[in-house]
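Dear H.,

Thanks for agreeing to be a second pair of eyes. The structure we're designing against is below in token form, covering all 391 positions.
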């Protein structure tokens, strides 16, 4: 991010204030600016992409079971493929595919149903045999594998480069990025937000967009709104450089344990969701976490359990009660929009959600009906989202 694109102060007024400078905030700013809305301030308490979007590598996929998540993922995949041209940046997209390893008949049946839904929506996913899974990823042991699901169109990219690409293009269009600026309060009158207070001044505004990730519940509280998002630490590790080099493999996930691994520069990246991880904002990396990963892969990809690592990284998932996003317009404050709670799926849905936020602000019909993702679903008695492919 160039220093010329970063502001240390906030203007007294703006048409749109976006709270949060990660992939959602940057995508929203880019899409709004591209549509001609240039009077935008993005408020970020640290550097851009310093929250969940700071992760070293982010998976991109359209392999979901819920049609709405498939549509958001698929549309974003196309945007990432086109990123060198619009907005114009290299995000190191590597289309290696996603490979889900399945060890139970029920898992396999759920993924088979998901593949049928994905195929109907144009996603080239398919069920494959354990032997074919091993051909795609030589580290895999077929012992105990029932089947696998694979889509060659998926892969991974670099979230920081995506945020930079969107932010640089938005800055050229006149957007202000106020970094190291903390939101301290939100003023409302009737059914509208009137201003956002920061530690660098107040900004009167016509629209507020909350893209604050794991911190969104606090932003909602400032406006008197309930955004049920909780922070959960997720950790990963990097191997030392491998000699001979690792083969080019898919983003591979042992679905039962959530252990995953894929290429990263001259080695591999390891990840796993610790089911015992308490809620909280702690992002300290703990080397003993690796024992969980090694225990999980010892049967599924035994060679990985013996690989030496050279450090790791911890970040935050922003988790909702049903592990699906909150996207929409507040029913109580008509000019308060939100996109948060992606539960690990935010980066891969970022481009599509930026389009949706643009259209909500401009009062245009978005490409997809996102009403099922309203934050009100948890108190209205509506069915929660039936997403099975959650890692």
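And this is the sequence the design step returned. I haven't edited it by hand at all.
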């Amino acid at each position: 991010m160039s220093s010329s694109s970063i502001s240390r102060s906030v203007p007294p007024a703006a048409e749109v204030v976006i709270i949060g400078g990660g992939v959602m905030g940057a995508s929203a700013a880019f899409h709004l600016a591209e549509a001609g809305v240039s009077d935008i301030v993005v408020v970020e308490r640290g550097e851009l992409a310093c929250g969940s979007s700071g992760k070293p590598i982010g998976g991109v996929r359209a392999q979901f079971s819920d049609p709405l998540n498939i549509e958001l993922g698929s549309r974003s995949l196309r945007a990432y493929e086109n990123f060198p041209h619009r907005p114009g940046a290299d995000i190191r997209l590597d289309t290696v595919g996603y490979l889900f390893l399945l060890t139970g008949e029920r898992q396999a049946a759920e993924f088979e149903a998901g593949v049928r839904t994905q195929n109907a929506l144009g996603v080239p996913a398919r069920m494959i045999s354990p032997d074919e899974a091993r051909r795609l990823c030589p580290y895999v042991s077929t012992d105990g594998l029932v089947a696998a699901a694979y889509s060659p169109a998926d892969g991974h990219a670099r979230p920081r480069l995506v945020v930079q690409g969107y932010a640089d293009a938005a800055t050229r269009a006149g957007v202000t990025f106020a970094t190291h600026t903390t939101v301290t309060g939100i003023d409302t009158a009737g059914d509208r937000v009137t201003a956002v207070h920061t530690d660098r001044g107040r900004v009167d505004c016509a629209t507020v967009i909350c893209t604050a990730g794991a911190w969104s519940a606090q932003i909602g509280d400032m406006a008197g709104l309930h955004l049920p998002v909780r922070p959960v630490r997720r950790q990963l590790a990097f191997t030392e450089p491998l000699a001979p080099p690792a083969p080019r493999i898919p983003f591979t996930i042992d679905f039962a344990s959530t252990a995953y691994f894929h290429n990263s520069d001259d080695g591999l990246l390891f990840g796993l969701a610790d089911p015992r991880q308490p809620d909280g904002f702690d992002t300290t990396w703990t080397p003993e976490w690796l024992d969980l990963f090694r225990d999980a892969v010892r049967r599924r990809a035994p060679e990985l359990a013996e690989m030496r690592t050279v450090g790791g990284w911890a970040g935050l998932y922003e988790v909702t009660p049903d592990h699906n996003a909150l996207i929409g317009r507040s029913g109580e404050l008509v000019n308060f929009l939100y996109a948060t709670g992606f539960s690990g799926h935010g980066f891969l849905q970022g481009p599509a959600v930026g389009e949706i936020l643009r259209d909500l602000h401009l009062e245009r019909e978005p490409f997809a009906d996102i009403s099922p993702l309203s934050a009100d679903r948890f108190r209205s008695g509506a069915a929660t989202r039936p997403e099975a492919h959650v890692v």
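Two observations from my side: The first strand starts at residue 6 and ends at 7. DSSP finds ten helices and 19 strands in the chain.

Warmly,
E.
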